[in-house]
Amino acid sequence: MATTAAGPVxxxxxxxxxAAVEGRFLSNRTSSAGLVSDGVHDHRDGLPxxxxxxxxxxxxxxSCDQTYxxxxxxxxxxxxxxxIVVYGYLMFLSATYLSSGSELLLxxxxxxxxxxxFLPMLGALPDAMLILVSGLSGSKETAQSxxxxxMGLLAGSTVMLLTxxxxxxxxxxxxxxxxxxxxxLQDTKRFSLTGSGVSTDIWTKYAAWIMVxxxxxFLIVQLPQAIHSTSGRHLAVLIALIVSVVLLVAYCFYQVVxxxxxxxxxxxxxxxxxxxxxxxxxxxxxxxRLLTEDGDPDEETxxxxxxxxxxxxxxxxxxxxxxxxxxxxxFDEIDLDKNEAVDSVMNDFDTSNDQHxxxxxxxxxxSKWLIEAKHYGNSGPDAGSNSLRLLNAADNETKRDRDLLxxxxxxxxxxxxxxxxxxxxxxxxxxxxxxxxxxxADPLVDAVDNFSDATSIxxxxxxxxxxxxxxxxxxxxxxxxxxxxxxxxxxxLTFSELYGAxxxxxxLCLSVFLALVYVRGLTWDFSAEVLVILIACLVMxxxxxxxxxxxxxxxxxxxxxYPFSLALVYVLDYIFGWS
Length: 579
Hints:
Blueprint: H1 2-17, H2 77-109, H3 112-123, H4 125-134, H5 140-173, E1 175-178, E2 181-182, E3 196-199, H6 202-213, H7 216-226, H8 233-285, H9 299-309, E4 316-317, H10 319-326, H11 338-349, E5 357-358, H12 359-373, H13 385-404, H14 419-455, H15 459-465, H16 467-471, H17 473-483, H18 488-519, H19 527-545, E6 549-551, H20 554-574
Antiparallel strand pairs: 1-2, 1-3, 3-6, 4-5
Helix pairs in contact: 1-2, 2-3, 2-14, 3-8, 4-5, 4-14, 4-18, 5-15, 5-17, 5-18, 5-19, 5-20, 6-18, 6-19, 7-8, 8-13, 8-18, 9-12, 10-11, 17-18, 19-20
């Protein structure tokens, strides 16, 4: 951390060295009276000499406004480009500190409120700060001019995450695909467009759905332009702001309760695995007869099985008798304690809650799961191996559901050593990242605006291309490195974080932007920019909403969307005159 922390110090020294200075100037005076000679005197022939004007004599047209009254500024192309690089690097450091601090804090406190509410907002903080300062300072006219920096950042960040970074993660994380499921650490098909790629869990698909839903505020705020109305634009901004804030609160609530939902679903999947394992074991004891020729549960056979299991002939099964039955069952690919399996069966079959299973409860319980299994396999007559095929199909589908829910045992969770020091380090990183973002966001926006004036390049394109590289570079590197581990679990986490980052752009950063537009009375005139955000979110969201596997051919869609988005904004704004 000490080495990394030295970066801002060096940058600050460079900025200080670039600050404005004053110097004595040489005049065209023909007399040197009253002056101490410095080797240049008695000017003749009217030849010009080097002229270094005092800072106070620079005209307003050749000057620039220093942010905070002391930050360096310039009107030259090279100078502003240098400042954009320097300030951009500082924003990159801010994003790095926030990301590292968030990960450390997550190790200590786990998910829940911290992981679901606090950390996603911190991840979007650099973008939110840049958007805020782009329309906060200066007059209304200045804010209207600079707010395009914020919109460029918002659109550029979303498009970059869903195109270049998304496609790169698929390439570096690709594995062999078999039945739309990636084989961990197996990459023998190389660059096969259909046989190589990544697969994710079901929660990643949910994250893509949420991302698609999060574009609703964009549609609301764009509605007056779509119907060519000018009277309702301010009201549309307010309604979109309210909806955006509501979606932000709902998303954070989902992030808080999602671990609990996941545990409940995983518990049910494990329970189904136990029940189908029990049915396959009972089928072996029943010599293949659990269904009638019509495909219905064979109650007589099930009753005979009950009597065979009832060792003490008291017409009810105790936990001891259930355990004797379950000990002989092998539950494939699942780490399940036998006592846990006994409790699972008892809780499912014992409808009277007397801690015993009578014959009627046993028949109803077995019949219920046989009927459920028929949804996964052939429901025809139980002719020998037919019932086995049915139960195997149900069990395999349960295993697939378990994989989609992200049950993996390849990563061990290690205990955190010295939690107090880790907590202090995390808080300091978060504090430092927040301070850097707050201090240098405004100078970066001013540098982009000055660079735009010096080059006549629209501020939108500068912020669309350059600023996301600074604010998202840390997140991009982390995602690519994580995806390169070539496992379903790491791929799921990688793409879930990408969709989550875009969702935070669409709700948190947009909320800040809409609040600026509404409070300052700015004009919402970003139809082309909103369109590229909608296209990127809807195309990539649709791609991820209906599949959990991303073959290599999907990267072509992602990579082509980036230049398409730039070209679309240029054509709509500067050829068709949308803005």
